[in-house]
């Protein structure tokens, strides 16, 4: 194919990936902040003397960041999310951004924080997030609130179904409360109890995340066990580093989903595949943080070929300058998946959502309608 036609074909494929309805299961609230917002908030913190703005300005403006620069921004995110208004703003914008690229179902994960100086408790932090979700106007946000659910007609309308400008898009949003690996057993238990308390307000699961070289599995196990006993779905960041003892413990614990699974050995791969725990695949994130040597050598291919349940996710779309549409484009461009395979991949993710059966039914309907538009006979061809 001549270069010009190749560029045009790539552009068309990117547009198709945006039009594809998508399910996002692994997105951290803090890591998904828009660059423009990050810049504005960093400037404000700089003016107050909390940080040196010039130190972070260039890193924020960059599109491709080194692992070291990513960690620098991680620290900044933590400073930013210490007041309620900022948390609310970020939550609102993150949902708007995902909805704008046709994500029809979004699970956002975030670590509830206590910050006595700002009058912030774990509950008030999550309430600030929920306030942000409710403030979204550009799109109808359906939280998994039991009250909302009874009034909900479940007639989702993603962008691709719209036939006039008056109709609004709809996005289903659920919250996962993250246990940070730095936390104590008691703090982790508080998070699980909070998830239980807020289960009718949009909280639908528990996540274990944070710096993978910090903390011990035994510290979080009582909280994870407690969540399991309460029937709260759990997802765990697994194998970001080759911690044999912990990877084995996670696989034995058998959560509903795992994220990443970068550093598994042959035996662990075998076990993961035999127990078929769905995997949240974060291509760009894994390559940028060194969990995978390159896109081409990412373990996506092995799991996909083994027909292992998996779902493409962004992890931290702001931090890694990606989007869910881009992740779909990358698997097409790197591994040669056809449009029908991409469509199937997106649709299969519905099975692994933590929401209830009614939401799943509604999502399946969305994909059915979208299939007619996106999978015209001519579209079944492979991308090149
Ligand atoms: Zn993550």
| Cα distance spanning the termini | 9 Å
* CATH topology annotation: TIM Barrel
Radius of gyration: 20 Å
Percent strand equals 5-15%
Architecture, according to CATH?
Alpha-Beta Barrel
Bound molecules: zinc ion
Q: What would you call the structural class?
A: alpha/beta
Query: Portion of residues in helices?
Result: 40-55%
What is the CATH class name?
Answer: Alpha Beta
Element order: H for helix, E for strand: HEHHHHEHEHEHEHEHEHEHHEHHH
Topology:
Blueprint: H1 3-19, E1 22-28, H2 35-47, H3 53-61, H4 67-80, H5 84-100, E2 103-110, H6 122-134, E3 139-143, H7 146-151, E4 169-180, H8 185-197, E5 203-209, H9 217-230, E6 234-238, H10 244-253, E7 257-260, H11 266-275, E8 279-281, H12 283-288, H13 300-305, E9 310-312, H14 324-335, H15 339-348, H16 357-374
Parallel strand pairs: 1-2, 2-4, 3-4, 4-5, 5-6, 6-7, 7-8, 8-9
Helix pairs in contact: 1-14, 2-3, 5-6, 8-9
Residues 26, 28, 209, 237, 259, 315 line the site of zinc ion.
Question: Can you summarize this structure?
Answer:
Keywords: Hydrolase, Metal-binding, Nucleotide metabolism, Zinc. InterPro entries: A_deaminase_dom, Ado/ade_deaminase, Metal_Hydrolase. With 384 residues, the protein is an alpha/beta fold.
């Amino acid at each position: 194919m001549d270069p010009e036609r190749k560029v045009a074909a790539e552009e068309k494929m990117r547009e198709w990936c945006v039009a594809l309805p998508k399910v996002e299961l692994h997105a951290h609230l803090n890591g998904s902040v828009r660059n423009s917002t990050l810049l504005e908030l960093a400037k404000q913190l700089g003016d107050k003397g909390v940080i040196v703005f010039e130190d972070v300005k260039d890193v924020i403006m960059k599109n491709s960041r080194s692992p070291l620069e990513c960690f620098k921004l991680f620290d900044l995110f933590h400073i930013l999310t210490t007041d309620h208004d900022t948390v609310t703003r970020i939550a609102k914008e993150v949902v708007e951004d995902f909805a704008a690229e046709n994500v029809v179902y979004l699970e956002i994960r975030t670590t509830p924080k206590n910050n006595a100086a700002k009058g912030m408790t774990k509950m008030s932090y999550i309430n600030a997030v929920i306030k942000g979700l409710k403030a979204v106007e550009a799109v109808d946000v359906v939280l998994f609130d039991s009250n909302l659910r009874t009034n909900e007609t479940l007639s989702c309308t993603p962008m691709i179904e719209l036939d006039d400008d008056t109709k609004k898009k709809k996005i289903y949003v659920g919250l996962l409360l993250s246990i940070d690996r730095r936390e104590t057993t008691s703090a982790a238990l508080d998070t699980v109890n909070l998830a239980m308390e807020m289960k009718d307000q949009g909280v639908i699961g528990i996540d274990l995340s944070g710096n993978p070289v910090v903390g011990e599995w035994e510290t979080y196990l009582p909280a994870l066990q407690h969540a399991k006993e309460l029937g709260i779905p759990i997802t765990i960041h697994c194998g970001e580093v080759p911690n044999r003892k912990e990877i084995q413990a996670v696989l034995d614990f058998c959560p509903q989903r795992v994220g990443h699974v970068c550093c598994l050995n042959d035996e662990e791969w075998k076990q993961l595949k035999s127990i078929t725990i769905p995997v949240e695949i974060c291509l760009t994130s894994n390559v940028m943080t060194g969990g995978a040597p390159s896109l081409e050598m990412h373990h996506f291919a092995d799991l996909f070929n083994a027909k292992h349940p998996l779902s493409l996710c962004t992890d931290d779309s702001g931090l890694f300058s990606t989007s869910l549409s881009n992740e779909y484009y990358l698997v097409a461009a790197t591994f040669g998946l056809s449009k029908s395979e991409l469509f199937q991949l997106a649709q299969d993710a519905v099975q692994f959502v933590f929401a209830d059966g009614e939401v799943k039914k509604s999502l399946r309907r969305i994909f059915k309608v979208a299939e007619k538009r996106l999978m015209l006979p001519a579209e079944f061809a492979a991308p090149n």
